[in-house]
């Protein structure tokens, strides 16, 4: 059991989430997702969680495991073309995970997704949360444009563009 991690999670509150992601930053992220989705048929969802609950900490749940749960709970896997993407940030750990649906998984390597995560985490270390997420959205969008081009006749917005605060 990692007591330092547990203490960090117990001391993160909603105030830290609001400080890292004020309303203006959340609006910018939403607008970036909306604009991005006009250039490809993929569906991007951003979710941020301040800290894990005590039970998850005791069981030593990783950010990746939690991101997979969130991917399922938000039904990101349920898009018509199997091209949903979750960008998940666990603020207490400053850990980003990108979970992609099977349609994308076959086209974009785990290494490429990890590189996007590490770039975002680098921005977070400099307290640039909004800029880090927006850069990550742009990078993911480049992959989606290549593999899932926009089709105005068939494309519809299947997932909310609004950032999810968990």
UniProtKB/TrEMBL annotation:
Residues 22-141 form the TPM domain. Pfam families: TPM_phosphatase (PF04536). Transmembrane segments: none annotated. It comes from the Bacteria. InterPro entries: TPM_dom. This is TPM domain-containing protein.
């Amino acid at each position: 059991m990692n007591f330092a991690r547990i203490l960090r999670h117990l001391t993160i509150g909603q105030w830290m989430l609001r400080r890292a992601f004020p309303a203006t930053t959340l609006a910018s992220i939403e607008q970036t997702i909306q604009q991005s989705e006009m250039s490809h048929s993929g569906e991007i969802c951003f979710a941020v969680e301040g800290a894990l609950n005590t039970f998850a900490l005791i069981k030593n749940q990783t950010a990746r495991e939690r991101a997979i749960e969130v991917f399922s709970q938000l039904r990101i896997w349920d898009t018509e073309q199997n091209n949903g993407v979750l960008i998940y940030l666990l603020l207490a750990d400053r850990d980003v995970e990108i979970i992609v649906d099977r349609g994308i998984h076959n086209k974009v390597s785990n290494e490429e997704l990890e590189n996007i995560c590490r770039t975002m985490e680098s921005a977070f270390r400099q307290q640039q949360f909004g800029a880090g997420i927006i850069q990550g959205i742009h990078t993911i969008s480049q992959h989606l444009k290549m593999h899932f081009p926009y089709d105005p006749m068939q494309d519809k917005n299947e997932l909310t563009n609004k950032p999810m605060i968990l």
